[in-house]
Request: fold
Amino acid sequence: MKARVTVTLKNGVLDPQGKAIEGALKSLGVEGIDGVRQGKVFDIELGTADKAQAEAQLKAACEKLLANTVIENYRVEIA
Amino acid sequence: MKSAVIVFPGSNREGDVLRALKSAGSQVEKVWHAETELPQGTDLVVLPGGFSYGDYLRCGAIAGRAIVMDAVRAHAARGGLVLGICNGFQILCESGLLPGILMRNANLKFICHRQFLRVERNDTAFTKAYAKHQAIDVCVAHGEGNYTADEETLKRLEGDGLVAFRYADAQGHITQDANRNGSMNSIAGIYSEKLNVLGMMPHPENLIEDLVGGTDGRGLFESLVSSFSRAA
Reply:
């Protein structure tokens, strides 16, 4: 089973990297960009075929390591 | 006093902190991150600076979950002293021993320079050799030192007197210019609730000899050692 975990900064948390990327896009002449927030994507292979078990395992992975829930949110998608 | 300096893959300041502790009069042992226990009789645990695990995922995130950290957490819960410097501070935040997080510097630059800090209180095991509000001359070297916490945490840190050091000018004034990484409330270091865990971004271990330009960092290590010689 395959899954994708997306980790993003919570609203209101300053994202200097996103701001720098936003500035770079503007300087490249890419128009219409009002804001950029940088996040992370993890593509994960799971041994189980059981969706509920996979969800539990991914939740544990996110809470224990992949996201720092002080500043980040995470979203899990199972393929 | 017995100190244990924890070494992770990618730590690189363990030698300097070991030297600073020894010259202040502590016995010191290096402890590899895969150990399940601290050496018998450890009084102080130090998490040194560096780039543990190459700063992968988030600074300090992987080291904060290393096997040895269970022993460090147990040591802290017993009231044992823990000091995290630079990457060590990031590890303390990621391991849950201290609140908040160190974000990318607001100006996006790796900063590496001499830096004055204001000592916020001098009644802890870490700072008794300093005067209250003394400006000490140490240095900083980091890309992620921008201390960030939610409003409630910040209020609690300030209300309970848990801010250890703030970025300051040479006179000890807290100015925007002195706060080069953009930390909330110019925070350079914080204590745990029981004042036995200290995390700080600046490097006191760099300034312990006149030969390298200053000795203001010595006071921190001498404070720690004197706490124990008096108790013994």
Summary: The mean pLDDT of chain A is 94.
